[in-house]
Amino acid sequence: MKRSSLAPLALGALVLVFLSGGWSREKGSQSSAAAPPPEPAASSGIDAPVEAAQLSTPSPNATPMATAKGVGTIKGILKSPYARVAEGVVFVENVEGKLPPPRQNPVMDQKNKIFTPHLLPVLVGSTVDFPNTDDVRHSVYSRDGSATSFNLGQYDAGIVKHVMFDKIGVTHLACNIHTEMSAYVIASQNPYFALTDRQGNFEIRNVPAGRRKLSLFHEKLEPTTVEVTVEPNKVNIVEFTGLKRRQ
Ligand SMILES: [Cu+2]
Question: What is the mean pLDDT of the chain?
Fold first, then answer.
């Protein structure tokens, strides 16, 4: 085929990918359009691995902070069978310096009576959009013990509400109308975080070099912290071992 006849095809494919949401949105948010709705097992407490579930790991796309020591990558794995049951969020604790929240708000969608994504890690201070893209009303609130407390009340399809997560920590979301709805927003002090995949793997790039504490939030596993020395311009390997199941 001649080159000139390929061009319209390529353009068409490009438009299709774009229209289908095949390109993920800005940092911190998962592309919900490209992935099938999460399997109920991911949030229902059923401990059977869901091999077919397609989890997309958001790229933190952390902007390197100005640092004389340089930056490195942390690559790791959760050594636990529960890594295959549900995703987790791994985040670096207490990094010096402060970065502004992303210009584009992370999104916690409500569709088919499911929060998507199930875990949403954000930089503290981020405002999260809560669109109701369902055909029913939802009433989103934070459960007791959450880092950020709020209650959006009932709202209709087509409405977008917003919540600023200005406290570091985990906020457990629920819906007053649909008790099966559950999700978490994890507000991190810095943008150095990643979701784990169904093999328990994760990767965090552009982490300022130095001795770092790395913490895990996982629905099935006790919060755990490991230490890692981040050497600049290197892939620094770390393992979470001895993970205990939540009681
Ligand atoms: Cu609801």
Answer: 81
